[in-house]
Amino acid sequence: MTNSPLAGASPRPLAAACPQQTAASIIAAAHDLLGHLAAGHRIDAPALRTAMQSAFGASDASGGWDWKTAYEAVEVAQLLFMRRYGPAIHARTADAFERLKLVERIARLAPTQTRRSEEMAAYQQFSTPLGLAWVVGFAADFHPGELVLEPSAGTGLLAVQAELAGCRLALNEVAEVRAALLGSLFEESRVSMHDAAQIHDRLDADLVPSCIVMNPPFSAALHVETRVTDAAFRHLSSAVARLGVGGRLVAITGANCAPDQKAWRDGFIRLQERSRVVFTATIAGSVFAPHGTAVETRLTVIDKVPADDPKQFPVSAGTAPDLVTLLRWLIANLPPRQSITAPAIQPLVASRKSTAVRTVVAKPRLVPAPAHEPSGVPLDYEVIDWQSPSDGQLSDTLYEPYTLQSIRVAGAQPHPTRLVQSAAMSSVAPPKPSYRPHLPDGLVEQGLLSDAQLESVIYAGEAHADHLAGSWSVDASWDKVEAAPDDCNTAVRFRKGWFLGDGTGAGKGRQVAGILLDNWLKGRRRAVWISKSDKLLEDAQRDWKALGQEPLLVTPLARFRQGTPIRLEQGILFTTYATLRSDARENRVSRVQQIVDWLGTDFDGVIVFDESHAMQNAGGGKSDRGDCAPSQQGRAGLRLQHALPDARILYVSATGATTVENLAYAQRLGLWGGADFPFDKRTDFVAAIEAGGVAAMEVLARDLKALGLYAARSLSYEGVEYELLEHQLTSEQIRIYDAYAGAFAILCAAAHKIAYREVAIMRRNAA
Description:
Layout: H1 19-38, H2 45-56, H3 67-92, H4 96-107, H5 118-123, H6 130-140, E1 147-150, H7 159-164, E2 168-172, H8 176-185, E3 190-192, H9 199-202, E4 211-214, H10 231-242, E5 248-254, H11 262-271, E6 276-283, E7 297-303, E8 319-320, H12 323-333, E9 377-378, E10 381-383, E11 399-401, E12 407-409, E13 419-422, H13 423-426, E14 438-439, H14 451-464, E15 472-474, E16 481-483, E17 498-500, H15 508-521, E18 526-531, H16 537-546, E19 554-556, E20 571-576, H17 577-580, H18 591-599, E21 606-610, E22 621-623, E23 626-628, H19 632-643, E24 648-652, H20 682-706, E25 710-711, E26 714-715, H21 731-766
Parallel strand pairs: 1-2, 1-4, 2-3, 4-5, 6-8, 17-24, 17-25, 18-20, 18-21, 19-20, 21-24
Antiparallel strand pairs: 5-7, 6-7, 9-14, 10-12, 11-13, 13-26, 15-16, 22-23
Protein name: Putative RNA methylase
GO molecular function, one term: methyltransferase activity
GO biological process, one term: methylation
């Protein structure tokens, strides 16, 4: 019997023990249980309890260990058994079915896992049953000496199959105790602790596996409390991206994660542009039942060879009632592995070396990925003097070609399509800036941001570096803002905002991502991106990814229930105006309060109000029917701005406001109550601009640009040609049209008769 390092000590709660100590005790218990397996004896509850109490020096009742930890000790015992007796099983018979039979016989000696812990539920830690792990290894067809990656390695039951085949291992596991277990059990292997949904972006560029085996969580994600339906597919996509060309991936997922399912078909089509699904089959829930869940699962095999037709998939073999059937289907339908080539992965714009989440085990043999964060370099640009063209005489056109007027960015590429601005806007130049953004080295040269887009990043940073004039008092509801007296101890100053008013095609999303990235590289690792629709989340992630960043850092607020803490250490929180306006209810704080609690009242990062015109009528107004109350969305947007006075506010809209009173949401531009414009109150501002009409609005936009607070470019239509397309109606089409018109006339006449009849009845009844 192996003694625990904690034996003889006073009982110590499991939560208080460090991961290394817990892992050492689990391994000690596993060595004790190995004797039961070697003797062919079933591990029952009393035997398991005895081994755990001996290893931990305490009982489960005293909090020394829990049953989830005990089940992990059983799994480690199975691993140790396979490591010791696996070669003998292999030598005993060459028949795959006989080998599977022997492995399943050992698996049946383990107790059924009937109890769960909070961590097990949160991470969906359902380890691969030993028999299924062996079948996964059969499907993987390991080649001796190759590098095998397991992104969600758990307790190592899949990894040991590759080890027995003579493979090198790279293991990843985010749970601390399990990662410590892997570090002790696989001493010569790399062990990292990344979110496996981002494994491709986190690992070193030189780590290119030729085979990947995985059993990811089906619907759970880190820092997300609610169900994430595409969790398994995210893991799958990232793993395929990391897999070397010609390599093979074998994955266990939920049964519905299949190419023939409508929800996943488009995703698998995208996967098949660079890889090929060669086998898929559902597995009956009874296979996983010994490990605590009876849900149906799926075995999918993918080879890193582009499919001939990405829209064509192999027919699912069906639902395997047991592992013998699954093995038979694999033998009959699984093609042999392709030849392997593993070219070096090209780094993205910024250095993308992997980052260890935390130290796993304090032992030299454990090799965590080196800590490295994307770094930026100051953007180099030249300040220039602008002169209006043609001796100050503008052309008689409505729009003028757009050029950078106050700066010149060395090496920057022009916008892919010509840009223009209104004649009024072109008559003034923005002020000469001094702000230097930080961006990844090489971004400018690669043209990921054009010169006009880089100008936006510069001027947004320039505006955000200053504060509006005056000090202000904000009430507890964040609804009311008043000028603060000199002796007010709670007075705040509001940081200036910036307005991006570009039209379609200028790349507003890419510019927003550039502004966020600049602040990210300066250490401001939390931000908020608010837009009109949750469907724009993918666009936001696309624009963030286009600059070489991890798209999953853009996380939807909808994944956190209202009233619960937002558990993100860093990231860009994406939400909609409809979500933002949710008030407090049923002892749950409002969405605005939830965001403020996450950011902190001293937050100085970026808040993006995308499609900011959705906050129109934030201050109320007048209509033909009288006064209009402020809109809920507008009020919510103002509350967020009031609650976080030091936030860097970015307004984004091609149509900032249909009427001047709808600019109430844009308080950070200082249009009233400040030093830049002669309006003490918003009502004075609205009255003056409305009196001036469209011309006054043009002057306002021009002055905002001259102050460095606004930019508005549009795509040029110069050179665009169009042709009238005339369609000659056939006699049959004319007949059909006339028939519809005649039918409509009959319906209209009948409707009028009904209306007259109803009026006559009402008059008769009134008499």
